[in-house]
Amino acid sequence: MSYKLFIPGPIEVSPAIFAAMSKPMVGHRSKDFVALYQGLQPDLQALFYTRDPVYISTSSSWGVMEGSLRNVVAKGVLNCMNGAFSDKWNDVSKRCGKEAGALQFEWGQPVDPAAVRKELATGKYDAITLIHNETSTGTMSDLAALMAVVREFPDVVSIVDCVSSFSVVPIKKDELGIDVLLTGSQKALALPPGLSLFAVSEKARQRAAKIPARGYYFDFLEFHANHEKGMTPSTPCISLINGLRAKVDEIKKEGAENRYARHAKTNALVHAWMTKHGFKLLPDPAYASKSLSCIANTRNVDLEALNKALKARFACVIDGGYGKLKGKTFRISNMGDETEATIAQLLGNLDILLSEVPKS
Ligand SMILES: *Cc1c(COP(=O)(O)O)cnc(C)c1O
Q1: Which of 75, 74, 73 is nearest to 89 (CA)?
Q2: Substitution site in 59, 60, 132, 143 for ligand 1 pocket (most atoms within 8 Å of beta carbon)
């Protein structure tokens, strides 16, 4: 049975992207691959608003999230935590044997810049991890305010996850002074899972050069040396890179600004629907994500029954809450190719089901 995903990743992949991905293989050390890789560079740099190289990793985002720690943390890392993914990053820092500080906020709260300043001022840290858009709670922190604080500490290398906000809102890497900015394929880029993209500053590379035991697969210096030749360190998932080429062409055709505006409109539609039904967002609306809505289940709807009916009758799936928020919230993604029409259709289906599904 095929159905359409409105969960916050992976999301629906269009037939055009699958078609692009089915191109014949080329050798990953061939001129054809180099042309593909180098052709993508200027377009990826434009989307990251950077002059730094944008590397392509065959891994999900966690590969680069873990790899970044191994590349840049010498003294200690401050993990800013306000949801499942950012909390996990603290766990991963410890698993990598790093000194890791936990700056914890309640789920649904944004990361507070003043608290970050206070922690960094202790001098214990030479790196920081930040998640721009905490997907588990639909909370978008104020990245500009946070990076203004981080820039007060020139020895600190910043690692920023924009996995579920990349191409939804502009994230100006160089202007904000972000050292490592990373994203993954299966969120707003609407590609299948398996690829991550990450742009790395010279400062982060210089730090990496001084750190032993960076490993191989995610070594920034290996990525850079291969990048100079238009290649990746190991055999990449070439099919996904062909998909990325097609997606980037679509984004250029639509225009990045139009893409941001489209996401803002579809996100607002979900918010209006939610209000109409007497629901509320989990986060403060001032920090609401633009790529998904994390809605508190204030009406005590049986979310499992709702989703089951949605799938059976309308071949759509939403998310019933992540981790400890399961059943207490539900999440609707408006990432990727969704339009006002497709989101309105989903919301119309939910209207019908809400009048029928019992409370839990
Ligand atoms: C989905 C997601 C991740 C993890 O991505 P994987 O592809 O599972 O590695 C990390 N951070 C955020 C904010 C995410 O939304």
Answers
A1: 73
A2: 60
